[in-house]
């Protein structure tokens, strides 16, 4: 397939309109921020000792971003649970943020029930479904977000309300200024990565062509660009229908880097991108430099991608937007419809046969 150059080029290849979701992400950020800012909460933060966020897939990534972004700003630890069971320490002094876009996510509902049984303070972020029903029955705080999107295209709705919830409870700083900057950066980048913009001047298209028919490898760093690396690979899988690999520095320097050996060249089938940020720890910055040199020596083609923006949150969003557009153009090159997730649908159907629902 060829790289699209106009909106009419993508119309027949993207019948569900994934491109429109990406191009309008800055508007979603503004709306999601308003939803979070206006949310009326009754939950108390007095005596809280921990925060646990529940979610899977596109719903969980918002919590992952919130946790990474606020890692050094929260007075208590925050953990993201992607599964059926919550940690043993969850109890009356734990704030649980249950995020499920559909409201019917099997794993999240299980962890939600267990959290309530432990006496935790639970706030839900959802479009509705069973989670909203159960929360309503128990008089819990529920932040309602708009329905009708693929969960991965609703990142703003899953992320920004959680930032506002934590601020309203006195656990995190006011996110207004950072969200405003991030919204402006997302709007600017939507223009720079637009389908009408030629590949020569479009970094997202360039990356898609660079990854095409290769194995994408994405390296970030703790805390926040490592989460972006996870987002990139998730988008490559769901939008492009391909497998990507990701890891974080400095951890990969203590194990995975040994796999980059000139004696066993994987460089010829891989393209490696390093997600860089001006807020990196100085030693991590040095590790990126040395790691890139070691991987270059294997014959792999490598690139660095730097975040844009002043605030940490805006820089994080800038890398998200690039990865989303890149994965979309990679789907166009491979001939994949970016929206359907048929293997996930098959899995849900098989699980439903055992009397469980998953979404």
**Fraction of residues in helices?**
40-55%
Structural class: alpha/beta
Number of strands: 9
Distance between the termini: 31 Å
**Number of domain units:** 2
Summed over residues and divided by their number, the pLDDT gives a mean of: 94
What order do the helices and strands follow? HHHEHEEHEHEHHHEHEEHEHH
Radius of gyration: 20 Å
β-strand amount: 5-15%
Largest sheet: 5 strands, parallel
Low-confidence stretches: none
Tertiary shape: globular
Q: The CATH topology of the largest domain is what?
A: Rossmann fold
Query: CATH-wise, what's the superfamily of the largest domain?
Result: Glucose-6-phosphate isomerase like protein, domain 1
* CATH level 1 name of the largest domain: Alpha Beta
Number of helices: 13
Strand order in the sheet with the most strands: 2-1-3-4-5
CATH architecture of the largest domain: 3-Layer(aba) Sandwich
In short:
This protein is α/β, with parallel strands linked by helices and 359 residues long.
Account of the 3D structure:
This protein is of the alpha/beta class. The chain has two domains: about 5-10 and about 195-335, Glucose-6-phosphate isomerase like protein, domain 1 (Rossmann fold, 3-Layer(aba) Sandwich); about 20-175, Rossmann fold, CATH 3.40.50. It is built from 13 helices and nine strands. The strands form two sheets. The protein has a five-stranded parallel sheet, sandwiched between helices. Strand 6, helix 10 and strand 7 form a beta-alpha-beta unit. The mean pLDDT is about 95.
